[in-house]
Amino acid sequence: MLPEYYQFHHPTKVMYGEGLVGDFAHELEELGVKNYFLVSDHVVDGLGLIQPIREGLAEAGFRITGEFYDVPQDASVEAVESISRQAKDSGAEGLIAVGGGSVIDAAKAANFIFSEGGDLIADYSGAATLVRPLKPFIVIPTTAGTGSENTLVAVIYDVANKTKLLFSDKFLLPDLAVLDPLMTRSLPPGLTASTGMDALTHAVESYVGVDASPHSEALAVAAIKNIFQYLVRATKNGDDLEARGGMLIAANMAGSAFSHSMVGCVHAMGHAVGGLTRVPHGVANAILLPHGMEYNFEVSKEKYAALAPVMGVDTTGMSVDEAARAAIAAVRDLLRQLNALDAIPVRLKDAGVPHESLPAIAEAAAEDGTIVYNPREVEAEEILIHVRNAY
Ligand SMILES: [Fe+2]
User: Fold this and answer.
1) End-to-end CA distance of the chain
2) Which of these, 129, 220, 230, 244, is most buried using a 10 Å CB contact count?
């Protein structure tokens, strides 16, 4: 069935290529500014991943006015404010983010204040607070997971209130996303697996969500196919550049899918787990994905059945229920394969979640901003059953 109405807005230019980070600067000409402030982290810089970017920009006549490396594991309000202040003081006219989800989201949210001034939480929390484009923003991901280089959302951790704040606006979409498999080559197996499972969660949740559209579904399906093809390979052998590239592309496509169609109850539970217990986003989602799929089973089974062959299941002769069950089993199997590589836990207790926090996780999940997009209403009492199952 077609949606009554939808739109697909994708202004971000996506470029893919091995070694591209040293050779993309000519693409910046059309953005009209020469001075960029760079946001990354110490690990990425320590791996020598920034140097080719610096050299490529300098060769093409662009200037890096300053660099910020202190983004915490979860992008914080404090980091966002520091980035925008330092970028402004340095005389920058645009931002370049080189990193994983936290770095990208911190720089993305910093662009609010960097471009428009004001207070991050008071002026920009929520959706569609902007009336015009922000300053040029380039993203070079070093993980294949969040797809944040292709999304209109930023998630920022409010340390004082232990909550994750969601910012969403079409003007947050970066101008340029540079996908280079050499940038994810050094990612250790644990992060490869957890970020890849986050991308899978984006794809599956956007595919079954209430705002799914033919465009977002096509991207979600393509992402899921790539993830089942490449995630175990990339986790097993980080130097497998084809697998690294396949995962970067998958995460990017899943990012676009969920930027249009949002996510659902897995992210609701994942945000709650992350906010209350500090388990990394990708790890929480990886563990919770099959359980969230179970929660939505009755309303989403036809869609799950359609995904089963994409996940490599031969559904010949299966009923819708059987094929849908097989899709959930395929996700569990993928998680088990990654767990066998010592890359990711399968249960919340193995991720360090205290048992007594489960009711609070269910309560927080039922209040999360993503639940309005979930195909089934999320009630704390009902979702607690699945949170317990994940324990
Ligand atoms: Fe996510």
Assistant:
1) 36
2) 220
Q: What is the CATH number of the domain that holds 130?
A: 3.40.50.1970
Give the distance (Å) from ligand 1 centre to CA of residue 74.
12
- This prediction has a pTM of 0.96
Report mean pLDDT in 10-residue bins for the chain, 391 residues: 93 97 95 97 96 97 97 93 98 98 97 96 93 97 96 91 87 98 98 98 98 98 98 98 98 97 96 90 97 98 98 98 98 98 98 97 94 96 97 98
Phi-psi region of 95 (alpha: psi -120 to 50; beta: other; left: phi over 0): beta
What separation in Å is there between the alpha carbon of 255 and the centre of ligand 1?
9
Sign of torsion over alpha carbons 102, 106, 107, 109: positive
CA of residue 61 to ligand 1 center, whole Å: 36
CA of 345 to the centre of ligand 1 (A): 17
How many whole angstroms separate alpha carbon 53 and alpha carbon 61?
Answer: 12
List beta partners, residue 166: 155
Residues 179 and 269 in one domain: no
Do residues 120 and 20 share a domain? yes
Any domain includes 63: yes
Write down which residue in 154, 183, 212 finishes a domain. 183
- For ligand 1, the distance from its centroid to the CA atom of residue 309, given in whole angstroms, is 24
